[in-house]
Structure formats: structure tokens, C-alpha cells
Amino acid sequence: MYVELKDINKHFGDFHVANNVNFGIEQGSLVALLGPSGSGKTTILRMIAGLENPDSGDIIIDGKRVNNIAPAERGIGFVFQNYALFRYMTVYDNIAFGLELKKMPKDKIKERVNELLALTNLNGLEKRYPNQLSGGQRQRVAFARAIAPNPSLLLLDEPFAAIDAKVRQELRTWLRQMIYKVGITSIFVTHDQDEAVEVADRIIITNKGCIEQIGSPIEIYKTPETPFVTEFIGQSAVIEDYHRLNGFEKGDYKGAVIRPEFVEAFKSDNQKFKNVIDISEEGEITDILFRGNSLELTIDLNGVPITVHRSLERREVRVGEKMRVLIFKLFAFDDEKAYLLENSKLKERNINNEHLESYLYNENTNSFVI
């Protein structure tokens, strides 16, 4: 492992912000520290950078314990949430700053800065000041400045937080491409699961100072290991008395989580679903959001708001309309773990999600059923 944290603990007063944190990161990987506010992710990042000191444990970079090594000597580039650009320096001088501190020859500095201006698509902006740039351009300057001295590790603290939604989407792809192009091991902090899933190779989920789960985006989404991850990842509806749903019996669980992809909602007169209508539930649409290629329905299911995605090709629906809701699986959880449960009545009839999806598509008309 290129970066390792072993038994890391950190307190701020009575608050245990890092509680026996252990993980390793392979060289060249792009990793997201993902969690809600106050979960300890930024403090972990700052301890790796040397901006905070752990109370106990070891931080190892490239096989070397760095606890007592100054931040400037750790070979780390850091992109701050607010970019921390020097207001009275031009783009060129901001990027050159770290190289000048290293007393690099001026011709080498010019060569490196020009290389980074081209890499980050900032050519022609080198004489501008930060207040003359857009948010996306400032983020690119901060990135160029951080990698200018060729650090062995790049750390980014919520790199997209100060950017509007449209530019943020573009920069996610750009940042991922840039990091792979320069081949630098990178860790970024975010509370936005969409960012983590789209950008990172692996995700480390933090909660109350602890590591809840580590894995690829697909692994974490499809196989959450703890109750927290089950609720935190995806558009999850939490229901305690899940056993009142058709096809689910009571077990030794505290509750369950239902995701949109676990649900099918249809009108009661839709004959395609006549063989499962008896094991569906009745709900009422309370909200409809247009999501570009689909509708996102919120359906009240006996007091529990369930999120359902609906194709635009299907019949129009409206707020207040009654719908039949079929839940074919859910994640149940106890105090420690999460478990995937399937609808037993659907299993008895040998019906699964693929069968349900086939009901929705008419091959003769090459369209979705009503």
C-alpha cells in the first residue's frame, strides 16, 4: 500500500473525530473519503497532509512513517475547498509559487508552468488574477499549483463545493482525466455520493469518526455492509415495520431500506401486472419530479415515502393519484449488518426483477407498455 493509516485516533475535546481508523491506498489510485458533515473525513485528510496531528497511530506514505515530518516535506499537493489562491498574484505566479519556494531555475519554472497551463486548458489566462476567473477556472489553477512541484500524493478537500452545478458536472470528468493523465495517487473528500461514485476508483465511507466500509462504488452500492451505509447510499426509504409488506416476514431486524430500483409502481388497470396485483400495495403519489429521461415519483405507502422512477413513455400520472406498488426486495438491517431480502411471494411464483422489466416492454411495438 502506498498510503496507510494504522490505528489512528484524534480527539477535539470530548469529540472522538477519528476512532481507530485503519485503511490502505494503492499507488496510482483515486480514492474518495465520503461521509456526512462531522464524520471525520476532512480531519483524516488533514492528518495525512500534516496539518493536524493524530493523538495515536501511524501515518505511512511510500513505506515511511511521516507523523513527525513537516507538511512541506511530505511530498504532498493540497487543493483546498476555497482554492486558497493568492489574490494579488496572476495565474502564472500562483502556479509558479511552489516551484519558486524550491528555488528552481527560472527557465525550468517557465517550462513547467507553460506545461501545466496547456494541461489544464488555461492558456491565455496566465496574466489574469483570481477575481477575473470563473469558479471552474480557479479550480483548475488550484489543481495546477498543487501538482506543479510533482508531488507523490494529491489531496483535495471538497474540490467541487464552491462551483455551480453545471460546471461541477463537467469538472468531475475533467479532474478524473487529469489525475489519470499525470498518474498521481489522489484522495478527495466529499459529502456528495454522486461525486464519489462518478470520480473515485474506491470509496472510504466515514461516520462518527469510524470507517464504515471500503470498496469500489459498485461494491458499496450493491452490497452495503452496515445499517449506516445502507441508509446513506442511494435514494433510500427507511421502514421499521417492513414485515407488513406483502412477501416479507418478520425477522430479527430493526428495520429495512427500500431503494427505487427495488420497486415497481403501476396503475391498477394495467393488465400486464394482473398476476401480481394481489401481492402489491396501494399508495398515493405525493410528488413528481422531472429528471430529464424519467420521472421521479414520491409515493406515500402507508406513511412511508417511497421513491420510484418511471419512464416518460408510460402513461401520464399526477399528484394525488393512487398507484399499485410492488416491492421485490429490500435491505433489512440489525445493529451491525445489512441483509438483502427478496419478496417470498414473488419467488414462489418464479418472478424476479428481469421478469418485471419484460412486462414493461412490448417487442411488437418497440415501446414501453402503459
Strand content: 25-35%
Question: What's the shape?
Answer: elongated
Radius of gyration, taken over Cα atoms and rounded to an integer in Å: 25 Å
Catalogue the unreliable spans. Answer: 361-370
CATH topological fold name of the largest domain: Rossmann fold
Number of domains: 2
CATH evolutionary superfamily of the largest domain: P-loop containing nucleotide triphosphate hydrolases
What can you tell me about this protein's structure?
With about 375 residues, this protein is of the alpha+beta class. The protein folds into two domains: about 220 residues, P-loop containing nucleotide triphosphate hydrolases (Rossmann fold), CATH 3.40.50.300; about 130 residues, RNA polymerase II/Efflux pump adaptor protein, barrel-sandwich hybrid domain (OB fold (Dihydrolipoamide Acetyltransferase, E2P), Beta Barrel). It has ten helices and 21 strands. The strands form five sheets. The protein has a six-stranded mixed beta sheet, with helices on both faces. The protein has a five-stranded antiparallel beta sheet with strand order 13-17-14-15-16, with no helix packed on it. Strands 2-1-4-5 form a four-stranded antiparallel beta sheet, with helices on one face. A hairpin with a 4-residue loop joins strand 20 and strand 21. It is elongated and about 80 Å long. The termini are far apart.
